[in-house]
Specification:
Radius of gyration: 18 Å
Order of helices and strands: EEEEEEEEEHEEEEHE
Number of strands: 14
Shape: globular
Low-confidence stretches: 1-24
Length: about 240
Amino acid sequence: MKSKSLIWLAAAAFLGACGSGTGPDGTSVSLSLSGGAAGPNLAIVAADTMRVGQDELILSSVEIVLREIRLKRVDVLDCDVEPEPEGCEKFETAAILATIPLDGSAQQVFSIEIDPGEYDRVEFNVHKVSDDVEDAAFREQYPDLVGTSVRVRGLYNGSEFTFTSDLNDKQEYQLVPPITVTDGTATNVTLHLDLSDWFTDATGALVDPVSASKGGVNENTVRDNIRTSIDVFEDGDRDGSRG
């Protein structure tokens, strides 16, 4: 069942193994990201192309800034306490720039060793890059993203556009059913981002992404669409689909 809160996800420019898990050798969970257009309200021409009536939207890149990506065990009530309890496994704590694959494939971003048990929640922040000291390294690498959490580039009716959002929100997603991690096994969780409804209004018509950037008439519409576009599930074969 899809959560109404966003759990953002995506295939990252930062690739590598990191985390605080302490599980035995071979006991691990990887996090993969997938994206593309698959919604029922649009004429899907391709995974990155949507056409409604005379309007056409082609996506060339979708990027999102994430921070504090965690997997929570079922017996842990709250990870936001000090000291952080065991069972709050960190994929990554610093801000990262994630680039969502647009072809429906799932790309592994992180893999961590982890303690055996049942895990039922993925948490992370969709993060607007700030002037805080914690973002200093990120700002140095991506100075053009200060004040931004989401950036989309593409063509709308043949004209180039760049859409940005300053969405800044803690997101969490319930894994139903929970994933079970046992000694010596590896599993994968995929965060899938359905982009098909991002730039649509209540009637299903496409909207110009430029009109959805900060201060635009469609800013809140697209922001809400982003929040409800994520599905999170166990995906052992990493094919980017549930089941």
